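Form 7-S
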Amino acid sequence: MTTVAVVVGNPKPQSRTLAAALHVARELAGEPDLVVDLATVDPRTLLDWTDPTVTDLVKQVGDADLVVFASPTYKAAYTGLLKLFLDRFAGGTGLSGLAIPLMLGGSPAHSLAPELVLRPVLVEIGGTVPGRGLYVVDAQHDDPAAYAEWLAATRPVVSGYLKGRTRSEEHTSELQSLT
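Output:
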């Protein structure tokens, strides 16, 4: 079974960034199983490495087959709130599936931000990024046309990966039942 997660680093709850991330997740793989809107998480728990709630969220996100990581663009980078969450992942082994870097910004001036600042971190913590990062101008966050070209290029890669992963899990399960 495919698990899909969304992690949003906008400090404003129920943000346009969240709406954009949910749209991308639904278009790629259906309704997400887990939505982590970091604005609703007590910031003190993000700084407390012994907090069991955040530790559990990190585990669930790390185990997901597909995770959309979304942030508004602040000073050409992702938010400190998302950074606090990403710091909880072990380098190289924290993520086990696909990671989608998504950033929103006020103008096209920072359109390389997902590629330059978010993608390298997601790869470093074990994620596989299936295409280029996605940047959406904030004013177009609710316009499907803003995502269409990126989705057309990325959806086949994501679908193929998720189908292959599901088949591999089924095969492993069959082999285990034989032993």
